[in-house]
C-alpha cells in the first residue's frame, strides 16, 4: 500500500528506473528541429571535462506518454478500468460530415482546448471558479472545479489561455525524462532507392519540377550507445497537497500518478522506430527514503477504491459531453484573413 503520510512529509517523490535497448546497444534519441539530438556535457570537477550526456526522451514527450497510459486504446475515452474519473468530451459536428469525437484527455491543452473554451462550457467554468478579470483569483475554487471536471489536468497541468484574460495556469505535478550517460555516436547511413529511375528524370507531368522525390536519395544516420540509460520521474506532492482538495482527492491524484508511471514502464517502451527499451532493473524511489513503489495491480486497486470515495467532488455524470458546431476553413478563407490583416496594417501606418 501507499504510505501517504510518509510521502506528504517530503515536498516531492523522486523515482529512477534503469532501461536498456531490447537488442544490441544502439538506440535513436529524440531530435529537435534545427538542433538534432540534445547532447551535452555534465559539469566536471576541477575544470575537467564532464561526462557526455544525451537526452533520450524529453519532458514534454514523457508527459504525453504518461497521459496515454490511462486511455482506452488511443482515446479519446478513459480506460474502462478507471471508469468514474471525470473528463469532458466534445462531439464536433459539421454540415454534411461525420461526427468527430475528442476529449480533455487527448486535447493538447486539455480543458484549455478551443473545443471547450469557445463554447458555453467556458461560462460554466467561469461561474464555478468564481472567475473575474479584475482582482485576485480564488485558487481553491479553481482547483476544485478542475478536479470536478478532469482531475488529470491537476496531474499534467493546464493553461486556460482562452478563458477570460488567460491567468489560469497549473504546472505539471508529474514530470519525467530519460537520459543516457557516457553517450557516444554510432554513425551509419542508407539510401532511398528508386527502382524505376535512379536519376529522377522520369517524373509525373503536372507542371512541377520536383527534385529529390523520384531519384535515389542517400542519407546519413546518427544513433547512440551509452553506458547507462535512466528514466527519471518527479511527482510534486507539495503542489498536489496545495490544491486543498481534501485527503481522499489528494490520495487519488498521487495514486493515479504512480499508476501512470508503473504502466508506462510496463509498456513495450517503443519510443521510436529504432528506440525500443526494456526495464533493466527495479524502480527506485530516491526521495523520500524508505519508500517503495507498489506494483501496478496494487496501484490500480487503490485508484479504484478512491474513485467512489471522491464521487461527491466529481461532475455528475462523470463524463461531461458537449456538442460543438464546427466548420472547415478553406485555403481561400485563410488567404482572405491574411489579406485583411495586411490591410489593417497598412491602414494603421497611414
Describe the structure.
- By secondary structure, this protein is α+β, with helices and mostly antiparallel strands.
- It has one domain.
- Helices cover 29% and strands 26% of the residues.
- It has ten helices and 16 strands.
- It has helices at residues 4-9, 59-68, 114-117, 121-129, 139-149, 153-156, 237-242, 247-266, 296-309, 331-349; strands at 13-21, 31-32, 36-41, 52-57, 87-93, 100-103, 158-159, 169-170, 174-181, 184-192, 217-225, 228-235, 270-272, 275-279, 284-287, 319-325.
- Strands 1, 2, 3, 4, 9, 12, 13, 14 and 15 form a nine-stranded antiparallel sheet that branches. A three-stranded mixed sheet has the order 6-5-16, with no helix packed on it.
- A hairpin with a 3-residue loop joins β2 (31-32) and β3 (36-41).
- α8 runs antiparallel to α9.
- The longest helix is centred in the last third of the chain and has 20 residues, at 247-266.
- The model is unreliable at 345-350 (pLDDT under 50).
